[in-house]
Amino acid sequence: MTTTESATAEERRDFIRDIITADLASGKYKEIVTRFPPEPNGYLHIGHAKSIALNFGIAQEFPGHCNLRFDDTNPAKEEQEYIDSIQADVNWLGYKWAGEPFFASDYFDRLYEWAEELIQRGLAYVDDQSQHDIRVNRGTLTEPGKNSPFRDRSAAENLDLFRRMKAGEFPNGARVLRAKIDMAAGNINLRDPVLYRILHAHHPRTGTKWSIYPSYDYAHGQSDAIEGVTHSICTLEFEDHRPLYDWFIEKLPVPSKPHQYEFARLNLTYTVLSKRVLTQLVRDGHVASWDDPRMPTIAGLKRRGVPPPAIREFVKRIGVAKANSVVDCGMLEFCIREELNRSALRRMAVLRPVKVVIENYPEGQVEEIEAINHPDNLDAGTRKIAFGRELYIEQDDFMENPPKKFFRLSPGNEVRLRYAYFIKCTGVVTNAAGEVTELRCTYDPATKGGNAPDGRKVKATMHWLPAAQSRPAEIRIYDQLFAKPSPDAANFAADLNPQSLEILKDARVEAAIAETNSSEAMQFERQGYFVRDKDSTPERLVLNRTIGLRDTFAKEVGKT
Ligand code: ATP
Ligand code: MG
User: Fold this and answer.
1) Which of 220, 204, 281, 206 is nearest to 497 (CA)?
2) Which of 206, 170, 188, 250 is nearest to 75 (CA)?
3) Which ligand 1 atom sits nearest the alpha carbon of residue 40?
4) What is the mean pLDDT of the chain?
5) Predicted confidence (pLDDT) per residue in 515-531, tens digit
6) What are the tens digits of pLDDT across the range 295-309?
7) Among this protein's residues, is 275 annotated catalytic?
8) Within a 13 Å sphere around the CA of 408, how many CA atoms are in the beta-carbon half?
9) Half-sphere exposure of 387 (CA within 13 A, CB side)
10) Does residue 286 line the site of ligand 1, with CB under 6 A?
């Protein structure tokens, strides 16, 4: 935990922690057990970080522990790559699960035995209706469902059919096992929900052992009970499933009696937090990969240079509530800037360079200029930057015919080069197209360090780099992936921001940046926060802009 993260119990109070506090005080539990139960069918996103921080955070604050349990009940969509990425991302966020990760598939044998037990007690039956008929006969919110013609099969027939389903005798979709509850129940989840479906698929962990797979509803609560989970915390869309969760726990000889609690999922403006959509963004090539820095995945945020404390602080600030809401993405950006302003070392980079020749600086001479690594943390020390006759400055720090309030470099105007000297523009070289290719300047040797002994002032301080002693870099500038505050998940492609990535191929950075492999984000003065990308090679440095310095985005939104 860092200094920006405050963690007092008082600050973190929410209705779930209140329930837990009361359960400990009343002696109902001595230890709290939570779990984070991702389905390994995609990478984790910032919404999952909320659930992770809640479940693992509770285990840190109260006596107890949190399990990582993969809900691997649908082999058609699940992959080892996702299992691996999920573990890496939870660790990277700074959380540790108790012991080894668990898998719902570890419990397939036990779940199967319990299903047979339900059959024997007349609480489950094999249904031969098609998927379509099952759906139609389930009824609606206003109309009760219809009993399946197979609902009154004998226990012996059900058992025989279920065993043959398990043995792989029937094709996908031929039959299902359903709980026998009440087709007229007001809660549709209680209208004979499906417990098992036939699926001939290779499972990442159990291989081809199983031809039938349990539903989420059947597997989840029982897995909680097997692990001794006390508080099974999930998102609000499962609220209507709770009566079913409780029905299984009541009917089955489970070793413990967990309770389900629901909280509001995280929604973020300009972002879609749905694995289905994120999967499609990757598959259809709208982004390069799951860890594309524009993705709201944990892997994307990491690659973009967002430090874990910023994400932890963000989920702490948004809190845990029972009402759905949409959080302004500016809140996440605020937390990222706050953390990086504290932690990132300062460097200089010129994103769109134009050459400056200091005409009165001796040819071949080079001196070293001292630069501060962090203005608020002098322990971070200083570094040396070469200064010579040829430099680079930012193209837009110069204007040949400036408007009134433009104080940066223009013909005849004097400015300060950060840490170095005052320079004055004496000439402009343009190409045939009229573009500025080089600026001729003079410097005042008496202004070394950035102040004039005669007390004269300049209105602008600009960053710069030496031409020979800086290094080339490709810099990737990211904007929101979506152009609309609430993208339409059903038709998300139409809402994509066509300008979400800008690549600057000719940027220059301080030489030392090219010579380290550091994955720490740094601040480029006046530009923002940047981090080395994994696409870098020894020949070609690639940097991602994590975020700009100021909240230009919020300002633009405010304008429209
Ligand atoms: P999808 O995005 O496809 O709906 P999911 O949310 O079902 O996926 P899981 O892998 O089942 O993904 O999620 C694991 C846990 O993370 C669940 O407990 C789920 O409630 C929680 N979770 C998922 N999305 C969010 C979110 N946006 N905010 C908070 N918690 C979330
Ligand atoms: Mg889910």
Assistant:
1) 281
2) 206
3) 10
4) 95
5) 888 889 999 999 999 99
6) 999 999 999 999 999
7) yes
8) 14
9) 22
10) no
